[in-house]
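Q: Hi! First time asking for a complex rather than a single chain. Here are the components, and I think there are two in total. Is that enough to go on?
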Amino acid sequence: MEKVILSSHAVAYAVKLCRAQVITAFPITPQTAIIEKLAEFCATGELRARFIKVESEHSGMAALIGASSAGSRTFTATSSQGLALMHEVLHWAAGARLPIVMVNGNRALGPPWNLGPEHTDSLSQRDTGWLQFYCESGQEAIDTVIQAYRVAEEVLLPVIVALDGYYLTHTTEPIDIPEEAVVDEYLPPYHPKHKLDVADPKAFGGFAGPELYMEFRYKMFQAMEEAQRVAAKADLDFRRLFGRGYGLVDPYRLEDAELALVAAGTLASTAREVVDARRGLGEKVGLLRIRLFRPFPRAEVRQALARVSKVAVIDRAISFGHEGIVSQELKAALYGGEHRPLIYGFVAGLGGRDVTPEDLEEALDRAGKEGPEEEVLWLGIRL
Amino acid sequence: MLEIRFHGRGGQGTVVASNILASAFFKEGKYAQAFPFFGGERRGAPVAAFTRVDNKRIRLRCQIYFPDQVIVLDPTLIQVVDVTAGLKEGGLILANSDKGPKELGLGGRFRLATVDASAIATRHGLGTKSAPIVNTAILGAYSRASGLVSIQAVLEAVQEEVPAKREENAAAVMEAYHQVWL
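A: Yes, that's all I need. Here is the structure of the assembled complex.
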């Protein structure tokens, strides 16, 4: 049954339903409401987890690496500078093949100090070996955290579930909290084949020279490739049990579209209104929402955009010296394909600058009229 | 779609008010969404929050620039913030004030209503005399002034969202409902 709740609290319900056993917590806006709610669940005994208050995000992830190595189901949440501080141990968690699930409340990095949503914080963790999902609604946030444990524990890689700060973390809306018994059916308890156990001693995190190291990386790469199939299956199984699913990418009115918007996160939700408005005027416009960013679903993206001639990517992120990050990924994914639409990369909404339907209308109007294609197009700049 | 903007000061429960109102509308079969304007909110500083209400699932995830209705929780804000900014013609402003609607000094093609929510909250022991928590009282007044959501739904939503001082909050909601100046 749907209930009007804060999306951050919905995430905490997901973690409770998944019976996380070890949670580390360090407050940072805009994710703090997630760990506050989890602290409450642990204090009341509704969730029987070890709740560890840590002195930094780096320590928070390090503690989860220990807990996950010992076979526990683990969770933490962070944002922005906190995620950046974790960077070193993010590589370790993935390299150690630990299925840790973390929510990132997307927020811009300072300076200048800012609290607003932006995807640069999590997108710049692209190469750490973590899967990354970007959510559009509070419902998708709770559902994706549940799916994340299924996928992580099957492929043995950690997962970031990214929620736009404020637009999701601070938004209250009707959300269905899944039934505990059905979540138990969907997500079996975590029993890793190898774990830290004094009764069965093994060595972890040892040295691997050039004669071995590359094979570890090859296997990790293969696991990440496999994660696409596993994530698709986890989503299908979820749909079967809960009646909701999202896909790895989420095409909207693309069947006969000539011009497509591409976006991740809540921006895509607003974009649906714009697509409908343009369709009402007889324009062949559609939307492709990128839900899974790592691994990047190349085949699905190619298929979804197989008939469009122009694409306007809206990035809530920037890679200085090149362009928007989703835009780069999209171009790389389509380059090897047979059909190569023109791709116009827009940068919008940095540091929480509001992205309105009018901004997206502007992107649709500018795509194809401004060039060259390589140029970064900025939306809503005031100079 | 109905779009409502709240103005208040940090600590008055403005964001909670936007959530309670979303919940009250949802109880009456509407879809609703509530979220704050984000910034470095501090106690006493001007804050804003938004509630959207519709008959279908709400997909817009951006701020509200042209509200149908504005709710002002702090009487001193009217001199500080342009609370009428973007308000649609024929819209409604409901303000916490000890003055009647005509004495607010706000003019335009919109309806005005006032309620002395600070006095009501103080009478019921909500917050302190210098910093009363007026968010529940103002929603009681909103039910009557807007005629869009029932007082029962507001009362239920207040009880669910504000577990502390249940009876006091319920009494403040009812008193404001009856004492709103239209």
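A: Chain A touches chain B at residues 2, 4, 6, 30, 115-116, 164-168, 170-174, 266-267, 269-270, 272-273, 352, 354-357 (CB under 8 Å). Let me know if you'd like any chain examined more closely.
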